[in-house]
Amino acid sequence: MTPETAILGAIAVPLLGAALIGAAHRVPDLREAVTLVTAVALFLLVATLAPGVLAGARPAAHVAEVMPGIDLAFRVEPLGMLFALVSSGLWIVNSLYSIGYMRGNREAHQTRYYVCFAAALASTMGIAFAGNLFTLFLFYEALTLVTYPLVTHHGTDEARRAGRLYIGVLVGTSIVFLLVAIIWTWAITGTIEFEPGGILAGSASNATVGLLLALYVFGIGKAAVMPVHRWLPAAMVAPTPVSALLHAVAVVKAGAFAVVKVVVYVFGVEAISGLASVDWLPFIAGFTVIAASIVALRSDDLKRRLAYSTVSQLSYVVLAAALLTPLSVIGAALHIATHALGKITLFFCAGAIYTAAHKSRVSELDGIGRHMPWTMAAFTVGALSLIGVPPAAGFVSKWFIISGALQAGHYPAVAVFIASTLLNAAYFLPIVHAAFFRRGPEDAHAAHGEAPWPMVAATTATAAATIALFFVADLPLALARQLSFGPAG
């Protein structure tokens, strides 16, 4: 198989899977088997591209010229390779988890759920492998549209309100800010291709660069930088596997990925380093990190706490990219992967608790670890990763991010990361303590044990991967290092 075929196949396979899932709607076992087979096939296709990218190749596929100078085209670079591997790999475990969750909670519209999930992964692959800003924008918008039915899955008034906010904020920011930024970039440079070192160097004034950066950061609403963040906690009305999709597999990771990709391949890290017009971004991202952590600390609803934790952790990526040092850019790329593993584990645990014990509030979790030890052990691993405690993977990315902040001499950013780490501990560790060391009302817990086995298996797998990535981080680290040091780095 040629690299070009693998690139196009990575987008076509989930779409074909979506069609087959829809055709198998009358046979649930077949429908779910098709989902799992499609997820595995996608991951294997994506994995075939990794050796070449690690060796310095940049495989590409040109589909069509939409208009002169604007192509629908794909090219695989290290950051996109890392994002595609994370997303396609986590789709496998999310699909397994979904089988247990959707059946265990007797959810309606399960076929539509699996179809939209597959379409979302096709859009995600298009974002990961986008060769230019037009292709990125096209698949970015497609991802918003195909995930809307997942957010509104339950069909309640609350779900519809959340859906309106979701579609309104994400489409509104992308049209008003992101599209304007892309058109402006094209007008200034005559190109919208992603290029190492950026395309804006020498083509725009310092003030223009600062304004363009603002349009990109706030136009990529999926990155949830405050104040463009309210859609994310509102979307928690969706089923828990959808929350996992939003936070770990596709949507917010697409936002964080897009911000880093634009900084590296449109602006250029070296080209804008030292420009006063971009100095505001670390402070906006730092504010989001701290403010969202405080809201998470005060939230009793477990999914809301996890949602605001995501808002905070996404701005780790934005802040790291904004520091414009080689180590911080490596940390930003790594954090996309480490946060994905830790956060999907935590959402899997939240869904398992809801399915088995019908609990959704932090204040209700006293003693639950005695009845759901596998689930709460996995929760502990995910929590430690997001706090940044070894041997969990989150320590690795935080190490590079903080090292990058020190490399830049940006001590306010160092203070933000230290304060955020303490806040992370403050809103996660009490949950772990209550689950294992407090006694809950026995009659409330005695009737249940662990969630259905597919949910437990998926949660255990992501928790184990979170630990494993601490010890074996060679692949993501090698890809991340190429962003700053090239293939030989």
How would you sum up the global shape? globular
Main-sheet strand order equals 1-2
Largest sheet: 2 strands, antiparallel
- So how many helices? 21
Walk me through this protein's architecture.
The structure is a single chain. This protein has 489 residues and is mostly helical. It is built from 21 helices and 2 strands. It has helices at 3-23, 28-47, 50-54, 78-104, 110-128, 133-151, 157-189, 206-219, 231-234, 240-249, 251-267, 269-272, 280-298, 302-322, 326-357, 373-387, 394-408, 411-437, 442-445, 453-471, 474-485; strands at 60-67, 70-75. The protein has a two-stranded antiparallel ribbon. The protein starts with a helix and ends with a helix.
Write a concise keyword list for the protein shown above:
489 residues; mainly alpha; two-stranded antiparallel ribbon; 21 helices; 2 strands
Describe what is shown at a glance.
By secondary structure, the protein is an all-alpha fold. It is built from 21 helices and two strands.
List the helices and strands and how they pair.
Layout: H1 3-23, H2 28-47, H3 50-54, E1 60-67, E2 70-75, H4 78-104, H5 110-128, H6 133-151, H7 157-189, H8 206-219, H9 231-234, H10 240-249, H11 251-267, H12 269-272, H13 280-298, H14 302-322, H15 326-357, H16 373-387, H17 394-408, H18 411-437, H19 442-445, H20 453-471, H21 474-485
Antiparallel strand pairs: 1-2
